[in-house]
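User: Show me a protein chain along with its predicted structure.
Assistant: Here is one chain, sequence first, then structure tokens.
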Amino acid sequence: LTISCVLIGLLAAPAWAQKTINVPGDAATIQAGISAASGGDTVLVAPGTYVENIDFVGKAITVTSSGGPAVTTIDGGQKGIVVNFANNETRASVINGFTITNDAPPLPTQVTFYTDGIFVGGANPTITNNIITKNRSYGIEVSFGSAYISGNTITDTNTASDPRFDYGCDYDDGAGIHVQGTSNSITEPPVIDHNTIEQNLGHCLGGGVALYAAPTSTVISNNIIANNQSLGFGGGLYEVNGSVSLCQNLIYNNVSGVAGGGVYLSMGSDNEATGPLTVLVTNNTIYGNTISVNPLLVNGNFWIDGSQVALPGYVSQLGFFNNLIIANSSYSAIACLEAYQYLSGAPPVVVNSDVRNTGGAAYGGWCTSPAGNTGNISADPKFKNPSSGDFHLQAGSPAIDTGFNAAPGLLGTDFDGNPRIQNATGASEPIVDMGAYEASGAPESRTTSQTTLTAQPETVFYGQPVTLSAAVTDSSSSPILQGTVKFMDDWSVIQQLPLNNSGVATMSTSSFGVGPHWLVASFDGNTVDQPDISTTSEVLV
């Protein structure tokens, strides 16, 4: 497995921190405070409205408010980018605790200057705890760079053209957060975590979040992405030509004009290829997203399907684990575009997920029978109050204690920050829940384990035997002697065997078909040791 949903945290405060510059006490404006600051300094801004457009000019400093975003505003005065990072800033360059607004006059007024709430060009700053609202272009734009984006509220961004002049998906544009391009010098991937992204209107590519060729292993986790609209693809989230983790997000009540009411997800492709999972969709709650067909796009032969998740291209390295994907739509909940089936050697993997559509098909297009297909259900998850955005699970929910503990991308805590694996039903061992929240119960107390899979030989002729061996050890690297191991080919179980007195399970098979096989071994756990999953091994027949 090549990616995960592990977050990359904030850097510690620089050891060379020198002074605090107060605005307006020591400097009349925020930009004047930045000009006076040196690396490691803090520009501390008092409550008020500051009509200016600020630029960090490459400085590793913290610009923060003393009173928080509700009482401290940076107003761009309709003159363009409100906060600019375009001079190789690093994660030590921090903007925190402001309302950031008014980058341009409202539509349909046309402007000749660049507009964004926050622009990141070839830089890698930290953007935390801001309210970014009522901007004309993107709320946050990251172009050929990276950023740590956490704890922000991004609302009322409108990149859509005035309806009187709009003739469809005539240019590429998204809304709340937009990430495009990979830097050759920045190794840290973007992190979009614990944000609320609501009520944004995108012109074509993504209403809430849009990613195009974003850096590999971009992490999108613990966000509320709700009530956004795209006039084209991906009402909540649009992603193309990248490798993005979607872990433990609430994605609901978004609307697209064509495919992907909730999520439009297209990864890099390789004709008829399979491989280890590189894109993970784990423990998300995706609910009630819709497609409201944009009549301006119908004659353009645009694909219209996937009310919750649309998969328009290659899918063989995509895995869904522990998700709640709930629709009430005439369009399929999850759909794969038939025109590009030839790109994929296998359908996407779906494991321990609840995929349900009370208005139509659960799966559409060519991927009506997903790979893996283990532990899946189609049932009412019994949310507490979805109409008010409460997606906690009621007692008796079929999603409680029915997930996959060793799911790749599983986070240690749930959306509320509670321990992720708890025993709410009195089962013999704790089992993780599906969706973004964990029902309360006895927490996981077993020790961690490690599963190592070997396959010999790695290349065989058709009909020749292959021996698979899985060794399971505990946290002190001692063999675990109790429990079973599932051997899986593309996440479909081929055999389940007990561990022997050396902590090893071994099987042999000569039934692999011609082509590559991507194999994993899953240890089910026992009363002392937690479940675990091996890395992927390839056997070529």
